[in-house]
Structures are given as structure tokens and as C-alpha cells.
Amino acid sequence: MADLLGTGPSDEKETENEDKKEGKRPWDDIPKSEKVVRTPDLAETLGFYDMNAVRREQRERENSDPSLARFLCAELTRGYFLEHNEAKYTERRERVYTCMRIPRELEKLMIFGFFLCLDAFLYVFTLLPLRVLLALLHLFTLPCCGLRANVCPYCNRSSGSLLLQPAQVCDILKGLIMVLCYSMMHYVDYSMMYHLIRGQSVIKLYIIYNMLEVADRLFSSFGQDILDALYWTATEPKERKRDSIGVIPHFIMAVFYVFLHAILIMVQASTLNVAFNSHNKSLLTIMMSNNFVEIKGSVFKKFEKNNLFQMSNSDIKERFTNYVLLLIVCLRNMEQFSWNPDHLWVLLPDVFMVIASEIAVDIIKHAFITKFNEITADVYSEYRASLAFDLVSSRQKNACTDYSDSVARRMGFIPLPLAVLLIRVVMSSVNVQGALSYSCLLLFYLGMVTLKVLNSIVLLGKSCVYVKRANMEDKLFERPSTAAPGKTPSRTRKTSRCTAPSGDPWSERSPSSPSCTFTAQPTPTASPTLRPETVPPPPTTSTTPASPPIPEPDPDTLTPSPSATPEQKEEEGMEGTELKHRTPKKDLLDVDRFTICGNRID
């Protein structure tokens, strides 16, 4: 019993000692209320807990509990700071400003390009007939004046067999093509074609119109090559007279091309005329919606600077062609209503609707293309300067091509088929009888000549301003390449012509110095019939092995090494040409309507 009784007080003392060691206090075992919850990390001051910290933690625990009122309060009072991502929002603002500048810059380019096409189109009606008459007069009066050898003012090469200058030969060929195609168009009945198209269903006409647009692009791309081949075959230096027979098949191909392209444009005009004369205007609405489908096919694709340049040229050509088609539709409708001016006011709303839809589609398309591809609006000034450079360079004494041909290559606009069709429609719509009618026709022709001259003067002045702003004046005096890339040197030497004046610093180089840039084959000073194998390469003194490859230089400034053989130079030229096609920073002056840029043509 004593042991049992003795063990009680000792056990109590042991438990007290254990509590002291563990840091327990007498009130720790007191049951706590539900509102006050003890935490192990409470602040203690002079042996007592900080009740403010307890309440603060209690409040945090209450705030962590989900509550709809608390969520709404947080949503209404939460804040954020945009300056933490200043660069991102500044870039977004610049994109908005770029989209706002696109309509103005695009329309500047479109207006300039429209007047360029108008100048090339008026040239066919005004100056081309006069140039053809002067060339024929020179050809017919040449026997009376005696045969005089034509001497090139640049290379002093005489060619007594040439009766006409190359430009005069091209003018005569253009005139013959126009006359033959106009006479062939008389066998095509416009009224029969109109009623044949009108009898088709709306869906068929919509499909036909889309097919005609694709065919027009294909005809334009291949047709300019046919015409260029004809001009070069007729004017290239020939060793034998029988070599001139090759002009005949090229001329026949050119005549058939212009005739077929004119019929294609006539079908387009007839389809548009049917859409204007439909009762419910459903076909016109479908044809206008076709422009908005173009946005879907263009906007959501990757575009480079050169691709956008091609698309801009295509839009300029398309807009000008549509204006001419609308003029043909108005002439045909006015003829059917005996030139009643009241019917013109019926046609004008539809005409303005078509034009407005075309402008709206172009603005939306270009705005989103520049936005998605991060292209600035200043690029349209570069495009305008490139078009102006073509105009200024064609006015030089040593120009390589006519201005209308340069516009055709750059934009894909060939004025000959459109001019043949317009002459056919005007002559069938207007009856010219009597002296008064011929007098009015003469006055109209003089008015067109005046318009052409004024337009050319204004365009030339504006072009000089644009070229100066773009700092492209030095390129006007550069010697153009005499060979296409990838061609054999023998063909280049056989058909090359001197295009630089004798006082040009390029002509004063030594024979061992390279006389061509990266895109042309070397042309040594030898006879035109000399084969490349007979031209020995310049002697080399270095026998060391080839040095390791160095970083690639800029293709625009690369020139073939004088110590390389002709075969090596040719390989370097071909490799450089492929590199130029691959690089996205190709010069805009080398890009025309049908040049592949970035593995695509737009």
C-alpha cells in the first residue's frame, strides 16, 4: 500500500517536469472555442501571444474560403500595369497606324500605276500609228536616197544590210499585228456571243467568269514572251539573209495570240454585260463576291516584299482592265438604247458599285497582308519608285526596250489585245458617215494625242521626283547586262549588242578585266563568231590549292574572278542566279509580274 501511495506524488512531479521540458503551460490543456484556433507560429510578447496576429491570421483563413461576394469584389477592384510590357503594346499600336496608312499609300501606288497603264494604252492609238507611218516613209524613200550603212553610235559597228532601225521594225510589226487582228475580229459576232452567254444559267456563268480570269493571266504571261521573241528574232544581227525566214513563224504566232486574247477579253466583256442587264442583279452580286473570295486566298498566306510587289502590279492591271471592260459595257448598252442619255444614269449605280467593291477589296487585302507579314506602309513608296525607274530608264538614249513593253513585263498588262477589242467595239457602235463625222473623229484623235502628251509629261516629272527620293539615280547610268543568266557564252557573244556609249567608263576597261556583273556571262573583245573554246583564259601565276570557303558576299555586288575559266564563270553565274531566286531580298527592279519570288507567283 505504501508503495502504491508513494508512487502517486512522484508520478505527478514527473509529469510536471515533462510538461516544463516540452514547453507546455497550464492553460494549454484548456479546451479552446471554435472561433480561436491556436497556431504553432504565433508571436509572443512578454510571455503572452499577440492577439492582433491571431486575428490577422484568422482573417486570412476566412478570406481563403470561397465566396461569390468576395470573387465579385476581387474582379471589380483588381488592377494591372500595361507599362510592364511596353514594347508589345507599342508594336500593336504601330500595326494599327500602319493599317490606317495603307489605304492612302496603296491608292497613291494604284493611281500612279493606272496612269502608267493609260499612257501605254494611249500610245497604241496615238503615237504608234505615226511611228509606223514614219517607218514606212523611211522604208519607201530609202532607195531614192541611196543605201547608207547604219553605224552603231556605241560600238561603231556598221550593218549595211539593215534598212530600218530596230525600233522601227518593232513598230511596223505592231502595226501589222493590229491591222490583221482587227480584220479577223470582223468575223466574230458580238451580238451572237452575248445571247449565247445570256442563255446560260447563273452558276455556269460564274464558273465561266472565274475560268476566264485564270485564262487571262496565262495568256498574258505567255503572250509577252511571244511578242518579245518576235521582236528579237526580227532585229537580231544575222549572218545570212535566209535567217530572216524565222520571223514568219514568230509573226504568225503573235497574230494568233493577239486574236485569241482579244476574243477572251470579249467573252469577259459579254459576261459582264449580261450581269448588268440581268433583272435581279444576282449574277452581278455573285461576280462582285468573287472579289471577296480573293481575300480568303491571299490574306492567310505568307508574303514577302517581292510577292507583295507582284500582287500590287496585278491589282493595278486588273483595275485598269476592269475600267476598260466597263467602258465597253456602257458603249454596247448605249448603242442598244440609241444613245439615250437617260439610260446612262441607270448604268452608273452599277458601275460605281463594281468600282467601289474593287477598291474596298484591294484595301482590305493589302491591309491584312501587311499586318500579318509585318510589312510597313513605306514599301509602297519603293514600289512606286521601281515603276518610275522603268519610265525614266525607257527615255534614255541607250534604252533597251520600249516603255509599253516594260509596262507589259512589269505588270502583265499587254495593250495590243485590249486595243484591238476596243477599236472593234467602237467602230461597230458608232457610225462614221459624212465629212462632219470624220471631222469629229479627227478632233477626237487630236484630243487623245494631247491627253497622251500631257500624261507623259506629268508622269515623267513625277517619276524623276520618285527616283530622286529613292536615291536610284546612279542605277540609271549602270550598264545593263547583255546576257540572260544561265545561257551559254557562245550564244551571248553571237547575239550581244553594245548598249553603252563609247565614253562610258565601262568601255575603257582592259580586256582582262571583267565587263559583266554577276548575272551576265563574260564577253571578251573578240569577233562575234568566235567560239568560247578558242578564247584562252587569262594566265594565272598562282599554283596554290584553292583556299577554304569564305563567307558568301552580297550577290548584287559579286563579279566573276578574272582568273577563272569561262566554264567556271558560267557555273558561278548559274549558282548565283539560283541564290538570287532563293534570297527574299531580291532587287525590285529584277521582279516582274511573272517572276517566281519565294517559290510562288501572286
Automatic annotation (TrEMBL):
Signal peptide feature range: none
Biased composition annotated in UniProt, kind: Polar residues: 509-527
Gene Ontology biological-process annotations: cartilage development; ossification; positive regulation of cilium assembly
Region named Disordered: 1-35, 478-589
Membrane topology reported for the UniProt record: Multi-pass membrane protein
Listed Basic and acidic residues bias regions: 18-35, 577-589
Pfam families according to UniProt: DUF747
Places the protein is found: Membrane
InterPro entries: Tatp1
Keyword vocabulary terms for this entry: Chondrogenesis, Membrane, Osteogenesis, Transmembrane, Transmembrane helix
UniProt biased composition (Pro residues): 534-552
Transmembrane regions listed in the UniProt entry: 247-267, 344-364, 413-430, 436-460
Recorded superkingdom: Eukaryota
GO cellular component, one term: endoplasmic reticulum membrane
Family statement drawn from the similarity comment of this UniProt entry: Belongs to the TAPT1 family.
Protein's recorded name: Transmembrane anterior posterior transformation 1a
